[in-house]
Structures are given as structure tokens and as C-alpha cells.
Design brief:
This protein has 21 helices and eight strands. Helix content is about 65%, strand content about 5%. It has helices spanning about 1-5, 20-40, 45-75, 90-105, 120-130, 130-135, 140-155, 160-170, 180-190, 205-215, 230-245, 255-275, 290-300, 305-310, 310-335, 335-350, 360-370, 380-420, 425-445, 450-475, 515-530; strands at about 10-15, 75-80, 80-85, 195-200, 200, 220-225, 495, 535-539.
């Protein structure tokens, strides 16, 4: 009767034995007495007696255990009101174990559905395996059962989580260990039968393994049935892979095909990002932005999307490739990029010379440099020809400017050498006076900027000439003592530049012969005043 009231319990019925009962009571009372007495006494005599009692009590326990083993070896066992008759083994431990096995088989009839005992190592192996035999064989009965449960929940619009599956299959008629449920889910995932999500993000690879191993996340990790991929969808994606990447997709099953496709997408995104990051130098690379964004979004999709949504994205990304990405890649990998870089560098390093040449070719260069799509048409070929012509024009203009500058400086040298004082100097002093002019000529021959050539020539023929002329008079006319014999020296003449002399004249322009005569008279007066003050006027 007691067994019928507890149908999920195994009852081991022992015969009534008053002596055994009394022994058990005595063991308990002795233990309680020894514990209480030891806590309140420090008498060595009493301590010795308590130790003897404790030894006797241990002997009594061993005797009771021996009797219990003997009783259990002969005891009747009951389950759900029925005596278990087919257990003949007399070993107490084995006898109870056999009884428990019958109990488990009765309570959990579906436990036998599991083909093996699983552990954490099996879970790791199944996630990381690519074994075709494991993944392509028919679904095992246990896998079908779990998959049916997931599909049933989906049809009832119920949310299936890892926790709900563990709770379901660990109870009822199943009694499956948690690790077995996790293993079956892992195998269904590898067979592309289910998807596992967290926060609406579909997990893959090691992320699935982590989700199956993290108990606190079981209640928030969603398990959904995976959509089936038919042969037509599989072949379509493989053809698209070949067309877009000009390389075959060597996968055979949907998971592998989508995995290889995604890997190639990620690589494409990385390559395009590297190009896009050069847009500070090549402005037209901004055109990569939108196609790159679309590829990034596609690369983030879950594998089933690649098959089911192929018709939605393939035309757009193929158009991007044909109209933008492929021409840009060809441009950046070919000679046209070199032309554009030459244009950019030349415009930056020679812009100061552009005002001295014809503007027509410069306009072609500007259009090419600022073209939003230089990879289209023949703009770069035109720009290359224009750049060559500009180089020739600037080189020719540099030669003319250098020649004219040198001629002006040579004239300044001749004027300096024509002074009477110059002939009074020795060779070393003459060379010292002329050397800065020669150095200026050498510098001009190295100068690339036309404006600088002109400026340097002007400074040499005016400022340097004025300076060297003053030095010439200083070297040629040494200071002498004054008549008083005090040792004072006469002041050196001041060199006044001709163009610095101001002539007072009432008109802004010379219009008549009289104007000329009056102007010349005024100029003569200014010149004579300077001469009278011991100044020399440079010409």
C-alpha cells in the first residue's frame, strides 16, 4: 500500500527487528551523551571513560551495518505497489542499483532514446566538427524529438529557449541529463536544423558553444527551427558567388556554402575599407561609401538570409560592382592612378609657376584632379598629355628666366668693374667683391620657381650691387687723418641709389619740352646737392 502511495519511489522492505531498533537508539543516545559530557568536563578519568564508550559505540555501528546488509540482501523491493521479482543478486549495493534502474526505466521510458552518455567534451567536439558522417546521416530519434518540440512551440507561437527545452526533456517521461539536451541542440545546429539567437542576433560557431555553456543565459537564448534550403537556392548562391567574386564556392552543404560566401564578403569589405580610407588623397573614393555600406550590412546577415533574400540584394550589389567598385579597383591598380598622383604632386609642387604659362592646359589638369569619377572616360589620357605640355612650358620658361637673370647680374658685375676705384684693388679684393654675384648666379640656376628667380635677380642687381659698390669705395679710398692731426678720419662717402632720389615736380607726368627741361633742372639740383655732401650716386 505504501508503495502505491509513492509511485515514483523504490521501497526496500526490511523485516521488523526490535533488537536492531534498540541498537540504533542506543548508538544515537551514546553519541549525544559523549558530545554533551566532553563539552563540560576536563577530568582525565572521565575523558578516558568517554573514549572507551566511543570505541564501543563504533563497534555497535559496524554490527548494525552488517545486519542491515544482511537484511537488504534478502529484503523484498516494491515499486508502484508491485514487488520486483527478477532481482536475484544478493549484494546489497547491486541489489538496490538494479532496483533503481527498473525504477528509472519505468518513470522515464524515453530515457532509452538517448544513444549514449554525453559530457562537456562531446559538446565541444560537435560544435567544432566538420565530419560529414556525423552531419549528413539521418536524424537520430532523440534529435527528431527535440526538433519536433521546437517546431510545435513555433506553431503555437511560443518562445523556445534553451532553458525551456532543458526543463521539458529533463522531466516528464524523458529524464534526460542537461548535457544530453545541450548536445542534441548542438548537433541540430550543426545540421542546419535550428538557429540560436541572443538579443535578436543569430549566433554562429564558438558563440553558439558559449551560449550552450553559460547557464545564466539559458532563459534568454532563443532556439528557432531553421528554414530549409533547397538545391535550387543552393545553386543560385553558388552561381552568384562565382559571378561576383570570379571564384568558385567550393562548399557542398548550405552551411558551408554560406560560410564561404560570408568569409569572402568580409574579405571584400576589408579590401574596400582600405581603399575608402585613402579618400583624403583621392576624393573620388567617396563613391565607394554607399556600395561599401551595403556590403557591410550583407556581411552581417545570418547564413539563411543569403539564400532566401538573394533576389533582393544580388542585382544591387552586382550593379555596384560593375558601375563603381570594379572601375575604381582597376583605376587604383593600374597606370591611371600613377597619372593622377603625378598630377597631384606636380600641382602641389609647381603651382607657383603656373601663372607664367598658358592656362589652357592648366584647366585640363584641374578638371582631371577634381573629377568626381576619373575612372570613367579618357580624362586621364588628356590630363597626361596636358601635364607633359605644362612641364615643357615651365622648363622652357625657367631657362629663359635664368638666362635673363644671369645677364642682368653680369651687367651689374661689369658696372662694378668699370669703376675707376676697382682697378686700384688687388686681385683678392676684386674677387671678394665679385664672388657674391657669382654665387647668386649659381643659386638661380638651381631655383625652380620663376618668381624666386626674378626676385633673386632683382635683389642681386639692386641691393647686393649697392652693398658691393659701397664696399668698393671703402676698400679703394682708405681713411686719412684730418689736418689737425687729432687722429680723426674723414667720413666715407654714402652710396645713394638713383631710384631713391626724390625730384620735386608739380606735375604727375612730363607732357611738353618745357616739362622735360624743368624736370631735368630739378633732378640736376638734387644730384648736385648729394654730390656736395660727399655722396656717390649709384647707376
Amino acid at each position: 500500500m505504501f508503495s502505491m502511495l509513492n509511485p515514483r519511489d523504490l521501497i526496500v522492505y526490511l523485516p521488523e527487528d526490535k533488537k536492531l531498533y534498540n541498537e540504533l537508539r542506543l548508538i544515537r543516545k551514546t553519541e549525544s551523551y559523549i558530545q554533551t559530557t566532553r563539552a563540560t568536563t576536563s577530568d582525565p578519568g572521565k575523558e578516558r571513560i568517554l573514549s572507551e564508550k566511543a570505541h564501543q559505540n563504533e563497534d555497535r555501528k559496524r554490527s548494525v551495518v552488517a545486519h542491515l546488509k544482511e537484511y537488504i540482501s534478502e529484503a523484498n523491493m516494491y515499486f508502484n505497489g508491485t514487488a520486483l521479482k527478477d532481482i536475484s543478486n544478493t549484494n546489497p549495493k547491486t541489489r538496490v542499483s538494479l532496483g533503481m534502474q527498473q525504477l528509472i526505466r519505468t518513470i522515464y521510458p524515453d530515457l532509452a532514446m538517448l544513444p549514449a552518455d554525453y559530457n562537456e567534451t562531446d559538446l565541444l567536439k560537435v560544435i567544432q566538427t566538420n565530419d560529414d558522417i556525423l552531419l549528413k546521416s539521418d536524424l537520430h530519434e532523440s534529435e527528431v524529438t527535440v526538433l519536433n518540440r521546437i517546431n510545435l512551440s513555433r506553431s503555437n507561437h511560443d518562445r523556445t529557449t534553451i532553458k525551456s527545452l532543458i526543463d521539458h526533456f529533463s522531466g516528464g517521461s524523458y529524464g534526460w541529463p542537461q548535457v544530453a539536451v545541450l548536445y542534441i541542440m548542438a548537433k541540430l545546429y550543426k545540421r542546419n536544423k535550428i538557429s540560436i539567437k541572443q538579443d535578436s542576433n543569430v549566433l554562429e560557431g564558438n558563440a553558439v558553444l558559449a551560449a550552450l555553456q553559460k547557464t545564466p543565459q539559458y532563459s534568454s537564448t532563443i532556439v528557432d527551427p531553421e528554414e530549409e534550403v533547397d538545391t535550387t537556392q543552393l545553386q543560385k548562391l553558388k552561381r552568384f558567388h562565382q559571378e561576383y567574386f570570379t571564384a568558385p564556392n567550393l562548399g557542398s552543404d548550405p552551411k558551408e556554402v554560406s560560410r564561404l560566401f560570408k568569409l569572402r564578403l568580409v574579405k571584400e569589405v576589408e579590401d574596400l575599407n582600405a581603399l575608402y580610407n585613402q579618400r583624403h588623397q583621392f576624393k573620388f573614393l567617396e563613391n565607394i561609401g554607399e556600395p561599401l555600406h551595403r556590403l557591410k550590412l550583407l556581411a552581417e546577415k545570418y547564413h539563411i538570409y543569403f539564400f532566401t533574400a538573394l533576389d533582393k540584394y544580388q542585382d544591387e550589389v552586382l550593379d555596384d560592382k560593375e558601375n563603381v567598385l570594379e572601375p575604381i579597383k582597376k583605376f587604383m591598380d593600374g597606370a591611371q592612378r600613377g597619372i593622377l598622383e603625378d598630377i597631384q604632386l606636380y600641382r602641389k609642387s609647381h603651382s607657383a609657376n603656373f601663372e607664367y604659362i598658358d592656362k589652357a592646359n592648366l584647366d585640363v589638369l584641374d578638371l582631371a584632379a577634381e573629377d568626381p569619377a576619373p575612372y570613367k572616360g579618357n580624362i586621364m589620357q588628356q590630363a597626361k598629355a596636358a601635364l607633359e605640355k605644362i612641364r615643357q612650358d615651365i622648363t622652357q620658361r625657367q631657362k629663359i628666366e635664368r638666362s635673363e637673370a644671369e645677364e642682368d647680374i653680369r651687367d651689374a658685375i661689369k658696372k662694378l668693374q668699370s669703376a675707376a676705384e676697382f682697378t686700384k684693388l688687388d686681385d683678392d679684393k676684386r674677387k671678394a667683391l665679385v664672388h657674391p654675384f657669382e654665387q647668386a648666379i649659381q643659386n638661380i640656376q638651381k631655383e625652380v620657381y620663376i618668381g624666386n628667380i626674378r626676385n633673386q635677380a632683382q635683389r642681386t642687381t639692386q641691393d647686393l650691387y649697392q652693398k658691393q659698390l659701397g664696399l668698393l669705395y671703402k676698400l679703394a679710398v682708405p681713411p686719412i687723418s684730418n689736418a689737425s692731426g687729432t687722429g680723426d678720419t674723414q667720413s666715407e662717402p654714402t652710396i645713394v641709389r638713383r631710384d631713391s632720389i626724390k625730384v620735386p615736380f608739380k606735375k604727375p607726368a612730363l607732357e611738353t619740352r618745357q616739362d622735360v627741361d624743368e624736370y631735368v633742372t630739378a633732378l640736376k639740383e638734387q644730384l648736385m646737392k648729394l654730390i656736395e655732401k660727399n655722396n656717390k650716386i649709384s647707376l
